[in-house]
Write a structure and sequence with these properties.
By secondary structure, the chain is of the alpha+beta class. It has eleven helices and eight strands. The chain has helices at about 40-45, 60-85, 100-110, 125-140, 150-155, 165-170, 180-190, 220-230, 245-250, 255-260, 275; strands at about 20, 25, 90, 115, 195, 210-215, 250, 270.
Length: about 280
């Protein structure tokens, strides 16, 4: 849903196609033929025949924005229903939708819940771990042991252990923290830097274990990063900020703080940072 974050004034209307009602999730099966994932005839009738358009054309943006708005409305309705039913204002949820940063931001700032938690791997990889813990609990009769979220987030493979393969691929190993000055110098000169530090992330977000670094103060940096990663030009990137500086740069609600640590929400720059980062938003 990379297109979903685009600021459009006229998103396509999906409100009549998907909604959360008292008896659960409702879909217009004549249009959203979910039982036939390759059948788009209903959508063609609803929006008109598909044409060969650029992926970021206005028509495609409207559809993406409409899907995003409908997704957020459904999530808010489900959250409100859960709070009313159970009286619990802390929400944990997973699945691919839980990786939708903008929807998580809307949920966290809605006032419906006081806290939103999403694991670092809310997609299929996390489901596999959940299934393993579920089996552990059933077979052992013991609860799942406490998991430190920060340890889990960096429980992927340690690519730096294979030094020979990295050297063959053109990587340079710098174990001395003093070499960070060299990295800063390159970033200030608008270099893109591939960064490996310890074990990789468990999950789809690059959180510093394996990341592509660039200076956010340079015009066109998003396009350059996306080009280097062979991504579409509209796909978003994230800004890394020291924890004690976050409140001076972004408006970050408390309910979304842990989401920001895992790159799972959107935030708005404040003060002078609005203009300094306008080319990234």
């Amino acid at each position: 849903m990379a297109l979903s974050g685009l600021n459009l004034t006229a998103p396509a209307d999906f409100g009549r196609l998907i909604a959360y009602r008292s008896n659960g999730l409702w879909l217009d099966q004549d249009v959203l033929r979910v039982e036939f994932p390759d059948d788009f005839s209903g959508l063609d009738r609803y929006f008109g025949p598909r044409e060969e358009k650029q992926v970021d054309s206005v028509a495609n943006r409207r559809v993406a924005a409409g899907i995003q708005r409908a997704t957020e409305q459904v999530l808010l309705a489900i959250a409100a229903h859960l709070v009313q039913r159970y009286g619990e204002r802390r929400l944990v949820y997973g699945g691919g939708v839980a990786l939708n940063c903008h929807a998580n931001s809307v949920l966290a700032t809605s006032g419906i819940v006081d806290h939103v938690y999403v694991g670092p791997a809310a997609h299929d990889a996390g489901t596999a771990v959940g299934a393993a813990w579920c089996l552990h609990t059933k077979l052992s009769g013991r609860d799942v042991p406490y998991q430190d979220g920060r340890v889990v987030a960096y429980s992927g493979p340690d690519l730096t252990l294979d030094a020979e393969a990295l050297r063959d691929a053109g990587w340079q190993a710098n174990g001395d923290s003093g070499n960070l000055d060299r990295v800063v110098d390159l970033l200030e000169r608008d270099w893109l830097i591939g960064w490996l530090d310890g074990r990789c992330e468990f999950g789809p977000r690059a959180l510093g274990g394996r990341s592509l670094l660039a200076s956010p103060l340079t015009d066109g940096v998003v396009a350059r990063v996306n080009q280097a990663k062979s991504r579409a030009s509209f796909e978003p990137v994230a800004i890394s900020v020291l924890a004690d500086e976050v409140e001076h740069v972004f408006d970050l609600p408390e309910a979304a703080r842990n989401l920001a640590e895992l790159m799972l929400t959107t935030v708005v720059p404040i003060g002078g940072w609005r203009s300094r980062l306008a080319h990234i938003a």
